[in-house]
Amino acid sequence: MNADKILDAKGLACPMPIVKTKKTIDQLESGQVLEIHATDKGAKNDLAAWSKSSGHELVKQDEENGVYKFWVKKG
């Protein structure tokens, strides 16, 4: 999946992946996709809930070698 911007949140503990995601997605245009890389297991539930509550769409999520990858489309 193509992303308009990639956010590296690896090594950050909750709530920093969400804080950085919010700050970064605010810089994107509606409809653009942000790819987030995180190592915090809590990010799986946190990003899904945050996306839904803030009007964005969690398009895809994946895990590769302990790195969680998320693609969020800005609402």
Overall description:
It is a single chain. The protein is α+β, with helices and mostly antiparallel strands and 75 residues long. It has one domain (5-73): TusA-like domain (Translation Initiation Factor IF3, 2-Layer Sandwich). 28% of the residues lie in helices and 35% in strands. It is built from two helices and four strands. It has a four-stranded mixed sheet with strand order 1-2-4-3, with helices on one face. Strand 1, helix 1 (16-25) and strand 2 form a beta-alpha-beta unit. The longest helix has 11 residues, at 43-53. It is globular, with a radius of gyration of 11 Å. The two termini are 17 Å apart. GO terms for molecular function: transferase activity. Residues 7-31 form the UPF0033 domain. Pfam families: TusA (PF01206). Keywords: Transferase. InterPro entries: TusA-like (IPR001455), TusA-like_sf (IPR036868).
What is the topological layout?
Layout: E1 5-9, H1 16-25, E2 33-38, H2 43-53, E3 57-64, E4 67-73
Parallel strand pairs: 1-2
Antiparallel strand pairs: 2-4, 3-4
GO molecular function: transferase activity
Protein name: TusA-related sulfurtransferase
Domain UPF0033: 7-31
